[in-house]
Amino acid sequence: MEINYRAATNADIAALARLRSEGWGEAQYWMPRITGYLDGTRHPQKALAPRVAFVAMKDDEIIGFIAGHLTTRLDCDGELEWIDVTSKHRRKGIASELVRLLAKWFEEKGARKVCVDPGNEAARKFYASMGAENLDQHWMYWRDISHLSHSL
């Protein structure tokens, strides 16, 4: 199975909303949030410009995506906002590769300390397997996410 990765574009927003809605509500809910996030009109708490999203593609289908931005939240430099992979493509290394791509972007922007809200226990275990530590009872973080980008 060949997977290609690239930066997300505005043409991808509907597919990202559908993918996000697999586990988190309705696509109609996500359309304006993803659009606003990418165009900079929706601001997560303490978010800074710039922000980015990457997609994982199999053939012409988006099967995963990740989004992140610079931040001052929790004394961090960056925040992983969203990551999703279609259920049938999980546990194949796609999410790990998406995290590595985002880590490389953070490194290029000078962001080392990166936080993430895991949202559930499966995500918490995944981030821990990628080297994230508990920041508090709710949040996790990488002290220096740049080490992940070197495995690309």
From TrEMBL:
<keyword id="KW-0012">Acyltransferase</keyword>
<dbReference type="InterPro" id="IPR000182">
    <property type="entry name" value="GNAT_dom"/>
</dbReference>
<keyword id="KW-0808">Transferase</keyword>
<feature type="domain" description="N-acetyltransferase">
    <location>
        <begin position="3"/>
        <end position="152"/>
    </location>
</feature>
<dbReference type="Pfam" id="PF00583">
    <property type="entry name" value="Acetyltransf_1"/>
</dbReference>
<protein>
    <submittedName>
        <fullName>GNAT family N-acetyltransferase</fullName>
    </submittedName>
</protein>
<dbReference type="GO" id="GO:0016747">
    <property type="term" value="F:acyltransferase activity, transferring groups other than amino-acyl groups"/>
</dbReference>
<dbReference type="InterPro" id="IPR050832">
    <property type="entry name" value="Bact_Acetyltransf"/>
</dbReference>
<dbReference type="InterPro" id="IPR016181">
    <property type="entry name" value="Acyl_CoA_acyltransferase"/>
</dbReference>
